[in-house]
Amino acid sequence: xxxxxxxxxxxxxxxxxxxxxxxxxxxxxxxxxxxxxxxxxxxxxxxxxxxxxxxxxxxxxxxxxxxxxxxxxxxxxxxxxxxxxxxxxxxxxxxxxx
Length: 98
Known about the structure:
By secondary structure, the protein is mainly α. The protein has 3 helices and 2 strands.
């Protein structure tokens, strides 16, 4: 049976990651507090960040930006969103209804 962890992102028990995702303290915190489902949410969010902010993931600045966003995503107030970002359910809804 797979190891489980109470996930800080999903707020439920879930399958634990196979190993820390980063070779640092943040990676260890994620490993101990985030499930595979929670990690998949980060993958989707980080992909949006890379695309929207045009992050160069091969640069030190790009890596530092993503690590900071990952810490906020899991353990802070939430990761940054692009200034004009709208969740998918709000895109293209110009009918004036709230």
